[in-house]
């Protein structure tokens, strides 16, 4: 074999390597961040619930997700007020330390929606608290649920009074920067109040998240339509982790954890079991939708009346 041929062959190999390297680099810069939305069936067994969170976070990381979203009550779901309060912990206790360890060990962000936070409250109440932990195992944001789910229907006999044991939050937290985009925090019942989602959008949110434990009946009727409405009206991604299945004799959750794009299209959805699904967050799509339909430019805040309470 001549030296000229070997030289030419080496040049071809070099240019091929350079081309492939350029192609890989191009596609890596074009790739959009992946997020994982998780679904589980919490019980009063805190150790088992924690293990489920750990396993789902590890699965999410193995699929290259940068954030894993978990549902309301991912720490536990008890069947009576006494245990709900007794099992709660302040944010500096072991359960948060365990979540921090999971995030740090897997180098993944965690959205933990609706943890039971013990408070120093004279009425023996707790907070329904959404905690976001970054990939270094540090708390990045804390939001306490401002809309409490109270239902005391004498006709149907259904009584679910969150305010019996939860102290309502008093603040909308500003969206936080994450590897997937600017994330606005809410919890479950908050999704029924578009004022909150629009406020978060106006504060810069690109993603809204609603970790939930929707009851089966209300979920069947309203879950999807509410989430899609929040995405469409804010032109944000919506990520809704969910509880699913039978937790105890008193409680069954709807499930159907999902991710919705800013056009209102469901791009990922869990099945009827403990599960995890992935979706890309394409902020270029978000910008395009907002440019093509610039609703915020048309919002008539100058003439909208102040919303006053309606007491029925």
From TrEMBL:
The record's section on CDD domains has:
nit
Query: Does this entry carry the keyword Hydrolase?
Result: yes
What does the record give under GO molecular function? bis(5'-adenosyl)-triphosphatase activity; hydrolase activity, acting on carbon-nitrogen (but not peptide) bonds, in linear amides
Establish whether keyword Transmembrane is in the entry: no
**One Pfam family for this entry, by name?**
CN_hydrolase
User: Biological process (GO) annotations?
Assistant: nucleobase-containing compound metabolic process
Query: Which InterPro entries does this one have?
Result: C-N_Hydrolase, C-N_Hydrolase_sf, Nit1/2_C-N_Hydrolase, UPF0012_CS
Alphabetical UniProt keywords: Hydrolase
Residues of the CN hydrolase domain: 33-283
Protein name as catalogued: Nitrilase and fragile histidine triad fusion protein NitFhit isoform X1
Instruction: Name the species this protein comes from.
Output: Bombus impatiens
């Amino acid at each position: 074999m001549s030296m000229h041929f070997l030289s030419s062959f080496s040049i071809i190999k070099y240019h091929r390597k350079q081309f492939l390297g350029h192609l890989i680099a191009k596609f890596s810069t074009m790739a959009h961040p992946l997020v994982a939305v998780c679904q589980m069936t919490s019980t009063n067994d805190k150790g088992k619930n924690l293990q489920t969170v750990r396993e789902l976070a590890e699965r999410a990381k193995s699929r290259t997700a940068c954030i894993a979203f978990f549902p309301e009550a991912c720490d536990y779901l008890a069947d009576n007020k006494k245990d709900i309060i007794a099992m709660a912990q302040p944010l500096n206790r072991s359960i948060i330390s365990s979540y921090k360890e999971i995030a740090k060990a897997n180098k993944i962000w965690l959205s933990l929606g609706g943890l039971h936070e013990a408070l120093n409250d004279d009425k023996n109440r707790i907070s329904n608290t959404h905690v976001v932990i970054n990939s270094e195992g540090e708390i990045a944001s804390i939001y306490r649920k401002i809309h409490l789910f109270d239902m005391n229907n004498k006709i149907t006999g259904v009584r679910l009074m969150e305010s019996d044991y939860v102290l309502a939050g008093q603040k909308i937290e500003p969206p936080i920067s994450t590897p997937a985009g600017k994330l606005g925090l809410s919890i479950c019942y908050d999704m029924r109040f578009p004022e909150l989602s629009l406020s978060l959008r106006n504060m810069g949110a690109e993603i809204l998240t609603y970790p939930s434990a929707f009851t089966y009946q209300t979920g069947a009727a309203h879950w999807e339509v509410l989430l899609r409405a929040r995405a469409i009206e804010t032109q944000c991604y919506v990520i809704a982790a969910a509880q699913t299945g039978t937790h105890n004799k008193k409680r069954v959750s709807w499930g159907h954890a999902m991710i919705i794009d800013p056009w209102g299209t469901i791009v990922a959805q869990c099945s009827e079991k403990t599960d995890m699904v992935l979706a890309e967050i394409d902020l270029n799509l978000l910008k395009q939708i907002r440019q093509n339909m610039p609703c915020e430019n048309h919002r008539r805040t100058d003439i909208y009346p102040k919303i006053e309470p309606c007491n029925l």
